[in-house]
Write a structure and sequence with these properties.
Elements (H helix, E strand, L loop, with lengths): L19 H14 L8 E2 L2 H8 L3 H13 L3 E3 L5 E3 L5 H19 L4 H13 L2
Antiparallel strand pairs: 1-3, 2-3
Helix pairs in contact: 1-3, 2-3
């Protein structure tokens, strides 16, 4: 199931283990992160995208709601839904988490090398 060509060409694999809303959510996040979907890009309406992908309207609405909660996209009422202009939300969230972790490590008296080793181990864990 493919939508129209171009940066908004989303596709859903019915045989994939991830549910359709998650496949759509991931594709939007990936395209925002790699710059394919630039800040301010208008996204299709929920109904139009559901029709293009042969999905239920609620499935697309669920993906859009999750993306909006993560600040990847923003709804602007009747104007539509757009890629957030606030920058890469994943990078912002990671930077905030890193700052919180660094503050905690300092409060606990952990050395920078010990704190880094803990993060590295966590990132390398399955």
């Amino acid at each position: 199931m493919d939508a129209a060509a171009g940066p908004l060409a989303f596709s859903i694999d019915p045989a994939a283990s991830a549910p359709p809303f998650e496949q759509l959510r991931r594709q939007v996040v990936e395209r925002v992160a790699d710059g394919t979907l630039a800040p301010g890009t208008r996204l299709p309406t929920v109904r139009a995208l559901a029709d293009d992908l042969d999905l239920a309207v609620n499935t697309v609405a669920k993906a859009y709601k999750a993306l909006e909660a993560d600040a990847v996209i923003e709804g602007r009422g009747r104007a539509g839904t757009f890629v957030s202009t606030a920058g890469d939300p994943a990078e912002q969230a990671l930077q905030a988490a890193a700052a919180d972790y660094a503050a905690l490590a300092r409060r606990l008296g952990a050395s920078p090398s010990a704190a880094r080793a803990i993060v590295t181990a966590a990132l390398d864990a399955p």
